[in-house]
Structures
1.
Amino acid sequence: MEDRPAHRGTKRHARLRHNPRGPLLWVGDDEDWETARQKDQVLVCPETACDIELAAVHAPSNRYNPRFFRFKSASRICGHWPAGNRGGPETPQHDWVKARLARIARHQGYQATAEHWHTRADVYVHEPAFCLEVQLRPTQFADRTASRHHKGTEVCWFIRDGLDSKKSRQALFHGRGVRFRVVDRETHRPIEPWNEPGNYDLDRRAVIEVWGTVARLPRRGREPDPTATGPGVSWFTTGTLSGYQFLTEVLSGQRRWHPAGRIGNKTGLWVLDTDVAAYNEFRKRQQQHREQLARKAEEAGGPQLSGEPQTEPAEPTPHMPVSAIQRHETTREIAELEADTGPINKIGNLPRAAVPVYSSASRPRPRPRRRRWWQFWLLW
């Protein structure tokens, strides 16, 4: 038990006494609220082991908390699932998106609870354990993600369109995030059904779209050629997907989060397992092509892909510059040439095989012969 001021005597969740295993009723969902307001319903505390009765109260004058469940008797209160203490009042937009995500999960057969108290998740899918977090403003994404992982749950951040802070971009591309917006299913233009709670036609037409980190295969006819691309070529592209299909694939395990660099992507991506298999097949064909080129180069005696130097000297040609002419000399002749370091080193004294052969086009001009002092007497 907790004292009454700690939980302010209100809750945002309740359950039906005659259906203890049914989904919890939440004040942020219009359908749940209509069920809770029916006169023949008996509401009790959302905690399974607690049987304290609650009453649904609608207070339009309360700007931040127009709907809540209060204790039916002041003598019987509890501290389970208290309202508040969640970082401030929830906006109508926040409640609408959470209710829609929870409804999608339930429609697919999962048990989902909005504003799950024990995990502090916006929407908690019980099995598989998954936290769906709706974020309309900057927050401590990394800390909250680590807290969910510590409790044994996966996380997906739904970051609204237009939230472009440094932390939100980091969460989007590196912290299991995805962009979202609410659009009309017929015109695909943004709409705000949370501002018209009684407009059921607008609510029916509203759908959630996600993008930013939703990966897809390259378009048909634009696939990279494994024989003409390097190892760092990008494979996946990103696009828009309906929130219903995205959530179906994520909760079923068909689409998973892949951090940056794992499958050749510079940022984290939500990728289908089948698309990852296609990517791995592309990389396999690319590697096989490179190995085939290496074998052909080795068989032809051409340049090695590994960058090893040539062992055979190139043959001199008449059009090659003097500096590039290769000499064909034996080890003994090279040793004799290096040993001949006397003061008079005439071309005629060089080993025969070491005399360079020049073309007429590149023949160097002869240097004038230098005479010694004792040779000048011959001129007289």
Note: The longest strand covers residues 177-184.
2.
Amino acid sequence: MARLIPIEDPDDPRVIVYRQVRERDLVGRQGGFIAEGEVVLRVLLTGGGSHRAVSLLVDGKRLEKLASLIDPLPDETPVYVAGQAVLDQIAGFHIHRGILAYGLRAPERGAAGLIAGLGERALVLVLHGIANHDNMGGLFRNAAAFGVHGVLLDATCCDPLYRKAIRVSVGATLKVPFARFATGEDALALLETAGVEALALSPSGAEPLAGMVCPARAALLLGAEGPGLPAEVLARARTFRIPMSAGWDSLNVASAAAIALHELTRHDAPANPL
């Protein structure tokens, strides 16, 4: 049974990790992260991911509605309870969802470790230069919806466990495994060595996406809107495009990913639904 701990002072040191959420998001949390909202918290607490909830901060008026989520928590997971006004002072903005959690990241295993753990049939996303947290969240939401087995990030991608990315993904960043390539690490060489075929999506792709058959072990490569994938990556991968109306050559990266993942997985039931 979770411990309910009243908080009346926004400067109470027990809730220091929740202070001024937006400002601290910008500088990082030394292995921690903030998640918000009932849907996201349900994924964190019951979704089978490897990240761990350390504490919760809840609007007292929401306790009854959130009982099914809070009651099963063990004693060592404190649930801090505050009124809306105190909650807002702690966070630094209006928390209209009425619930936050502070979590700890799972230990990093690196891109090579994630690739080594893939099964005989596997599909991963490989992301280059995705710096927008909305796009990152949307990409992870798509990954969860279509049963992707992991997401690999280059060194320039933003953090999937930034609060906004978690929220936009409806908790998928807490569930879908991810790892980051080190600066200078050759992503395509690692994939090739592991027998994972690189499929690069680009407006200039050599083949149309429609009708393609997904290899048993495949990586869908996506770049940032605007610059797209680096030329050296496109030169070493099998490239595909989504045909579009004349005069238009691009989609939002999360939208393009959803189309591509649907095509790649349409013959198989999703292996990892959220």
Note: Residues 270-274 have pLDDT under 50 and may be disordered.
